[in-house]
Amino acid sequence: MKVITIAVWVLRIAVLAAIILGILFWTGNAVNLIPVHMLLGIIAVLSLWVIGLAQGFIKGGSFGLALATFMVGLALAIVGLYQQQWLLGSSHWIIQVIHLLLGLSAIGLGEMINGRTRRIVKNTAAA
Predict the structure, then answer these.
(1) Are 70 and 40 in contact (CB under 8 A)?
(2) Distance of alpha carbon 48 from alpha carbon 54, whole angstroms
(3) What span, in angstroms and rounded, lies between the C-alpha atoms of 48 and 111?
(4) Is the pLDDT reported for residue 127 higher than 70?
(5) Average pLDDT in the 36-51 region?
(6) Looking at residues 32-54, what average pLDDT do you find?
(7) Cβ 44 vs Cβ 76: under 8 Å
């Protein structure tokens, strides 16, 4: 499905750029680019949701995967938006790691759904 292919590429680019900026923030650099990082995060979450929704509408799509995309996306957005207020001080790295792991989970989920959808479409076309 073209929608999933485009959304996966948007997700890949947004997450990669967000991770690069996140690493810069961790090292104390480019802190003025936090709004760009947040915009990339919003784009990543929206593209993940599009992937989940689109795969849910194909024959053989999974409601569970669609639900997972919405849960991971929502968790990523909540942690991203509110992380500055949680575990301040020397323990803040825990929230940062959770945010990073959610971002990596988002890209992993998107890639898994992309591969699964390609197999479903291929098998449907072959039948």
Answers:
(1) no
(2) 10
(3) 10
(4) no
(5) 96
(6) 95
(7) yes
Is the pTM higher than 0.70?
yes
Domain ranges for the chain: 2-126
Calpha distance 91→99 (Å, rounded)? 14
DSSP sequence for 70-87 = HHHHHHHHHHHHHGGGSS
3-state secondary structure at position 30: coil
In the block, residue with structure tokens 């919003």: 42
CA distance 101 to 75: 11
Q: How far apart are the first and last CA of the chain?
A: 17
Query: What pLDDT, on the 0 to 100 scale, is given for residue 21?
Result: 94
CA-based nearest residue to 109, from 42, 28, 47, 33: 47
Calpha distance 91→117 (Å, rounded): 40
